[in-house]
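Hi team,

Below is the intake form for MFS transporter from Pseudomonas idahonensis. Please confirm the fields before the structure is written into the shared record.

FORM ID: S-0412
PROTEIN: MFS transporter
ORGANISM: Pseudomonas idahonensis
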Amino acid sequence: MSVRAMQESRGPGPLFGLFCLGSYLLSLSYGSTFLLSLLISSRGGNEHDAGSVISAAMLSTFVAVIGSGHLSDWLGAARSVALFGCLLALASLGFALTPGFGHALLLFGLTLGLGWGVFYTLGPIIVAMLVEPTQRARYFALLSGSMMTGIGSGPLLGRLASALGYPVTSAFFIAAAASLVGVLIFWRLGARLSREPNHLGTSAARITWSGAARVLSSRALWPILMVGLGGCVFGGLSSFQTSYGVSRGVDYSLFFLGFMSAAIASRMLIAGIVVKRDPYRACCLLSGLMVVSILLFLFVVDSSTSYLLAAVILGVGYGLTYSVINGLAANEAPAGSTSQALLLFSLSYFVGVFGFPWLAGRIIVEAGMQALLFTVLAIALLNWLISLGRLGWRRAFQLRIAHNP
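The structure came back. Fields below:
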C-alpha cells in the first residue's frame, strides 16, 4: 500500500479535529434558540410566538439547501460555511438586542435559517469529500457529536447565566462571539481542504430535480423521511423544555445536560460499534428508545431523577439513530447521487426541526403541554414503524430468495 493510500485509510486526522471545533462553535447559535421560549415569555409573549420565530427559519433553510451547492462550487464548501456563519452571529445578536417579540424577531429567524442551513448542509458534504465511503458513518458520528455538543451548550449557557445573576440574553451574546470564532476557523480551513483528496468528485454539492427524483425513488427515501420525523421529535421537545420544566416542577437544564451528555457519549463511544452492525436492526431498536423516552415524559416524569432518565434515553435513541440513518442516506443513494441524498437529508431535517415548532407552540397554547407530548408520541411511533417495516420487508425478501434460489 502506498503512503498516500495509507494516509487516506487513516482518515483526515488533525484537520478533521479543527473542522469539528469550528462546527461546535457555530452550533452554539442554534442551541441558543432553545431559550427563545423563555426569552419571549419574559417579554410578554408565549410558546406560539416562540414557535413562529423558530419556524421562520424553515423558509430560509429551503433557500440555503437549494443554493448551498452552487455557492460551494463558487467559493468552496468551507468558505461558504464561513461566509454564512456570519449570519448565525447576526441572528444571535438580533435575538438578544431586539425589544419585544414582534416582526423583527421573525427577520432574525430567517437570518438564522440561512446561516444554519448552509452550515448544516455543507458540513456532511465536507465529510463525504474528505473521507472514503467505508469510513463515512464513523466520521458522520464525530461531526454530529461535535454539533450536538454546541447545540446542547447553548441552553446550558442560559441556565448558567441565570444562576450567576445575568440575563438570559447573555447566552445569545456568547453564541454570537463563538460563531465569529467558528467563521475564522472555517475560512482558514478553506485553503487546506482544497488540497485534500475529494472523494465526491467535482461539483458534488449541487442539487438538481433529476438527481432529487433519482434519490427519492431509491431506498434512500426512507432514511430521508425518518430524519424529518426525528427532527419533529427533537425540535418539538427541545424548543419548549423551558415550558415543560415549569409544568413538571423540574429544572429545564437537566434535559439538555442529560440529552447532550447521552447523545455525545453514544455518538463518540458507541456509534463506531453500532454503525458496523446491521443498520436496519439498529434503527428499529434505537427509534424504539425514542418512543420509550416520550412515554416517560408523558406519564413518569415527576422528579429531577426521572426527568434526567427520560432525557438520557432520548439522547441515546435520537443520537445514535441520526448517525445510522445519515450513513444509510449516503450509502443507499444511487451511484453518483450521494451528495444529492445528503442535501435532501438536510432539507428533510430542517422541515422537522424548524417547521414543527410552529405547530408545537400552537398546540401548547390551545391544548396544553400534554397534547403536544401525545402528538410527538404519534410521530415517534410512525418513525419506529417505518424502521420495523423495513426490517420486516428485508426479512421477507430474504425468505423468498431462500425458497426460490
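SUMMARY LINE: The CA atoms of residues 187 and 285 lie 40 Å apart.

Thanks, M.
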